[in-house]
Amino acid sequence: MVIAFTGDPFLAREALRKEAELLGLPGFTEPTPEALAQALAPGLFGGGGAALDLREVGEAEWKALKPLLEEVPEGVPVLLLDPRPSPSRAAFYRNRERRDFPTPKGKDLLRYLENRAKRLGLRLPSGVAQYLASLEGDLEALERELEKLSLLSPPLTLERVERVVALRPPLTGFDLVRAVLKKDPKEALLRLKRLKEEGEEPLRLLGALSWQFSLLARAFFLLKEDPRPKEEDLARLEAHPYAAQKALEAARGLGEGSLGEALDTLIEAEKRAKGGKDPWLALEAAVLRLCG
After folding, report:
1. Most confidently modeled of 8-17, 68-77, 188-197?
2. Is residue 28 part of a domain?
């Protein structure tokens, strides 16, 4: 009985561990033919079984394991942790049990975070859940952050969470835009310097800035239609709910002319960067102009 656990690494590993506990299997067996054969050999208390972690197993190692796995008796459990199976392993699983655990996205991720928080005795306010869902981090990293937040005394405000959480906001976050809107060139250039040191690509940053200002423009016109938009109206902004809410807050003090000028500045900077000019210089010049 071979069961493959695929999909999100954190969810797949968690599900495999629960199944292993139910079946009375020990920890992971080394993914070698010798170790697997020994684990499958009948013992004093049963017919053996194994759990293998295939995340670092190459094709040559897989070819050595495959004959043993093809001969596993129906009553002997072998659990395989294989979040991103190679084509050959995926083909092997077609005729066997495969349990797939896709990474939750959008509203599913919000519900997932709220449920995980409840298990820790933590109630996540909507804004905090949306903020966590917007961060750059896998489910395991988010789990560590939830564990950290569960140690804080209430109330759990967004401001406190932003100070405590170690994960980076996404590249499309408002940090750089906030500095630009504050007309603070020193802070904006410091943020650019940090991003450059972290290896970010200038064209990607320009694209992120352009997207942010386009989002601000959509938020501006939404507010023009209705100064108090409802939650369902946020979907029109085509952004994550947290980012959409931040855009609405920032757009309230903007003018249509300044938004148009900002978008023109970014379009021109992108042309210069793609036309052979130094992309970092084009980006810095655009940021300084936006701050002016």
Report:
1. 8-17
2. yes
Structure tokens at 196: 């450059």
Q: What are 178-199's pLDDT values in tens digits?
A: 788 888 899 888 888 888 887 7
Measured distance CA(208)–CA(269) in Å, rounded: 13
CATH number for 137: 1.10.8.60
Residue 237 lies inside a defined structural domain of this protein: yes
Range of 16's domain?
2-101
134 lies in some domain: yes
Q: Omega before 241 cis (within 30°)? A: no
E-strand ranges in 19-161 read: 50-53, 78-81, 97-101
Total count of domains within the chain: 3
Task: Work out the burial of residue 228: count CB atoms within 10 Å of its CB; fewer than 13 is exposed, 13-18 middle, 19 or more buried.
Answer: exposed
CA atoms within 13 A on the CB side of 126: 6
Q: Quick one: 148 and 190 in the same domain?
A: no
Kindly report, residue by residue over 208-222, the tens digit of the pLDDT.
Answer: 888 888 888 999 999
The region that residue 123 occupies, defined by phi over 0 for left and psi between -120 and 50 for alpha, beta otherwise, is beta
Residues near 207 by beta carbon (within 8 Å), at least 6 away in sequence: 270
Tell me the whole-structure pTM to 2 decimals.
0.66
Q: What is the CATH number of the domain that holds 182?
A: 1.20.272.10
10 Å CB burial of residue 234 (0-12, 13-18, 19+) is: buried
Q: Which residue has the tokens 């083909």?
A: 91
